[in-house]
Amino acid sequence: MKWTHLIIHHTGTEEKDARQVREYHRRLGWRDIGYHYVIERDGRVVPGRPPSMRGAHCLAGGMNHKALGVAVIGNLEARPPRPEQLAALQELAARLMAEYRIPVAQVLGHREVPGAATACPGRFLDLGRLRAVLARPEILYLVQVGAFRERDRAEQLASELREQGFDSWIAVR
Ligand SMILES: [Zn+2]
């Protein structure tokens, strides 16, 4: 499969876990759970159907053949995603974008696919903000090591850090 899009869903009901979603989809007569990944309530990412299998999550736009499907468990029309779920979604989406070279403009909520008549993934999932986070070229982790009243002491620490091979700079606040 050539995956060019990533479609974000919510499950729309408060299932207990991915297994329950999978059992439900199998009862519908599907070969497997419709999504490729499910994000559980605690932020755990559970593999759904393998990425080698076409999706069963978004008929509109022929997306089942073009898009990996990720579902967040819960009704995000009624409540916001849990912080753990949002963090997991950002991380997973960033990983899939890198792995399959999916541009951020092709990371869509189900409802954003032309022809899809659905509220999925719910009004509490901010897709614009998700894309803004994913569009950042990189994440930077800053370490602050000290605050001094005397400039000399700040210079001293900064030069010691540089000697040890760390970039360091002095800021004023
Ligand atoms: Zn959906």
Automatic annotation (TrEMBL):
It comes from the Bacteria. Residues 135-173 form the SPOR domain. PROSITE patterns: SPOR. SMART domains: Ami_2, PGRP. SUPFAM superfamilies: N-acetylmuramoyl-L-alanine amidase-like, Sporulation related repeat. Gene3D superfamilies: Peptidoglycan recognition protein-like, Sporulation related repeat. One of its GO terms (molecular function) is zinc ion binding. InterPro entries: Amidase/PGRP_sf (IPR036505), Amidase_domain (IPR002502), PGRP (IPR015510), PGRP_domain_met/bac (IPR006619), SPOR-like_dom (IPR007730), SPOR-like_sf (IPR036680). One of its GO terms (biological process) is peptidoglycan catabolic process. Belongs to the N-acetylmuramoyl-L-alanine amidase 2 family. This is N-acetylmuramoyl-L-alanine amidase, family 2. It comes from Desulforudis audaxviator (strain MP104C).
